[in-house]
Amino acid sequence: MQNFMTRRFTLREKILMLILIVILLLGLYFFLVFYPVRNQLEDIDAQMQDVADKQVIADVIEKRYADMNAELEKIFAMPDEDITYMPEFDNMKQLLVCFDQIFANTVWNFDNSYQLGDDGIVTRSIRFRFEATDFENAKAILGDLINTGYRCLLNNVSVSPSGEDVESGALTVTGTIYFYEIEK
């Protein structure tokens, strides 16, 4: 019996062993080099995307900050008479006096509600409806509402003809105006 270590391999066995060694080396390469490097590259790509996302967010925050600073500089540069006043909460009596003056020559009604904000600002929502003689009269009344001297925002304004007679020029105006007040 011949010793296994001194045995001579045939050409076929040598070729098979060479193919097995190549397959083994390829397998080792894929498992020890290719897949770990590919996973690291995917992790690096994900980290780069995360950094790019954070950069975009930082750019947006920086732009908003710059816009806010520009707006604050503009506000501080304004004369005192141009800055609108934000009254303390429950400014309804003063608003009613303003409304009586604004709507003196019209038929009007309103619905009032308010919402307390987390930032100490109260939003008073007033839905209004009034009759105007013509478009210019409606525009003047809406302008007076905006220029009450209190911080406000006009929203959902609808202008439609009063009644069936479109030719008369009489209008019904509805909308919502939000007044902002500081919570006590």
Low-confidence stretches: none
Helical amount: 40-55%
Mean of residue pLDDT? Answer: 84
Main sheet record: 4 strands, antiparallel
Short summary:
The chain has 184 residues and is of the alpha+beta class.
Q: Could you name the key traits of this structure?
A:
4 strands, alpha+beta, 184 residues, 49% helix, elongated, Alpha-Beta Plaits, single chain, 4-stranded antiparallel sheet, 2 domains
Mind sketching the topology for me?
Blueprint: H1 11-77, H2 92-102, E1 108-116, E2 121-132, H3 135-146, E3 152-161, E4 171-182
Antiparallel strand pairs: 1-2, 2-4, 3-4
Your description of this structure?
There is one protein chain. Helix content is 49%, strand content 23%. It is α+β, with helices and mostly antiparallel strands. It folds into two domains: 1-80; 92-182, Ribosomal protein S6/Translation elongation factor EF1B (Alpha-Beta Plaits, 2-Layer Sandwich), CATH 3.30.70. It has a four-stranded antiparallel sheet with strand order 1-2-4-3. Strand 1 and strand 2 form a beta hairpin.
